[in-house]
Design a protein that fits this description.
Blueprint: H1 2-26, H2 46-49, E1 52-57, H3 65-81, E2 86-91, H4 102-107, E3 113-117, H5 140-153, E4 162-168, E5 174-177, H6 184-187, E6 191-193, H7 198-205, E7 209-211, H8 218-223, E8 229-232, H9 234-239, E9 248-251, E10 259-264, H10 265-269, H11 273-283, H12 286-290, H13 295-307, E11 311-314, H14 317-341, H15 346-359
Parallel strand pairs: 1-2, 1-3, 6-7, 6-8, 9-11
Antiparallel strand pairs: 3-10, 4-10, 5-8, 5-9
Helix pairs in contact: 3-11, 5-15, 7-14
Length: 371
């Protein structure tokens, strides 16, 4: 009896096993798990896409036209175009160091991006002094177009330790004095603050004595008679309120200084690729981007200076020619000769510069007539 019951049990279990195998053989493959929906790029947290906070430095004072009309709007544009992935911390008014130190401030990483003046470190960027030749450039937007073209053609070799974002030769400087100047004879013996670079040689060519001092010291120095004047551009003359102590200006072609915006190489290399594109677009010509210190803005500053009592004296043609001949012989040609003596392509660089000026209708009255 027990044997029969066990036999029945084995039969039932066998049938159950056969049914299980039969149904299992007809079943489909197990369904793959449903993948999670891809995140909307617009909803991806910024920190997952990559962000950067840029420490920006400049010697320009916070209330200057450069800061108010150019650097602050430029930094805001970087933040806006990157949807907040680029943020910034500004250091204005030499907060990180004096003006001549600003290239090193960027190169050494004390700031990530900054505005520097190459002409304030004589001999360090010799070919770049071509940007400070005695020419008439009306706006910083035009000056940057010229500077960028020269950087691309030849000046890049002097700035291999940073990521150069733009270069410029500023705009034309004027001869600002505490007493009227009408002729070369009036210039003899004057003590003039120089911005450095080729302007120093121009002051010497006229028979005056160049003096280098920080812009912040010029007001008191002119007020007390330590110096008789300054060679600088209108926007800086206005920003430092120098019209209060010297209200005479000779409108002559003094050029200005070589400057630019650079970025620290380590900072640049760790910047996400898509943010590099934004940085290059926004900083390529910040003056054109913002409209700050363009031709119209400089004209407004000149009008403000005239309204404040500054007397702008236009040299008669014959007198202007006397000044320009001196600049050509004592500055331009001597600069070329010095570059060539040091094994640098001075004449080639100067001719390139003249080509870029001609493309933009910029006058170079001291260009050697027989070249």
């Amino acid at each position: 009896m027990v044997k029969k019951d066990m036999l029945k049990l084995f039969v039932v279990m066998g049938l159950a096993l056969m049914l299980a195998l039969a149904f299992g053989g007809c079943a489909s493959e197990p369904a793959a798990p449903t993948p999670a929906p891809a995140p909307d790029p617009g909803e991806t947290p910024a920190e997952e896409l990559g962000t950067i906070d840029i420490k920006f430095s400049t010697w320009h004072v916070p209330a200057s036209a450069e800061v108010v009309d150019v650097w602050q709007p430029m930094l805001e544009e970087l933040e806006a175009r990157s949807n907040g992935r680029i943020t910034y911390t500004p250091y204005y008014g030499s907060a990180l160091g004096a003006g001549p130190e600003h290239y090193d401030i960027v190169e050494d990483g004390l700031s990530d991006m900054g505005y520097f003046t190459a002409s304030w470190t004589p001999g360090r960027f010799p070919l770049s002094d071509v940007l400070s030749m005695p020419v008439f450039v009306g706006g910083k937007d035009v000056a940057v177009d010229i500077g960028n073209a020269m950087h691309e053609r030849i000046l890049y070799q002097e700035f291999e330790n940073v990521k150069m974002l733009n270069m410029n030769g500023c705009i034309q400087s004027y001869f600002w004095t505490t007493t009227p100047v009408r002729t070369l004879e009036d210039v003899k013996g004057l003590r003039m603050r120089s911005p450095g670079g080729l302007q120093t040689y121009m002051i010497e060519a006229l028979g005056a004595e160049p003096v280098f001092m920080p812009l912040g010291d010029v007001y008191l120095s002119m007020e007390t008679g330590v110096i008789d004047g300054i060679v600088t551009c209108p926007q800086l003359y206005y920003a430092f309120k120098l019209y209060e102590v010297a209200d005479h200006a000779v409108v002559a072609s003094f050029g200005c200084v070589a400057e630019g915006v650079a970025m620290n190489l380590d900072t640049w290399e760790r910047t996400p690729a898509d943010l590099k594109v934004i940085i290059e677009e926004v900083t390529a010509n910040p003056f054109a981007l913002t409209g700050g210190l363009n031709v119209d803005a400089i004209d407004d500053i000149m009008n403000s200076l005239a309204a404040a009592g500054v007397d702008f004296y236009e040299l008669p043609e014959a007198e202007a020619e006397r000044w320009n001949i001196l600049f050509a012989d004592e500055v331009v040609i001597k600069w070329v000769e010095q570059m060539e003596a040091n094994g640098l392509p001075g004449k080639e660089t100067l001719i390139m510069y003249k080509e870029e000026l001609d493309k933009r209708g910029v006058e170079f009255p001291a260009f050697p007539s027989d070249w």
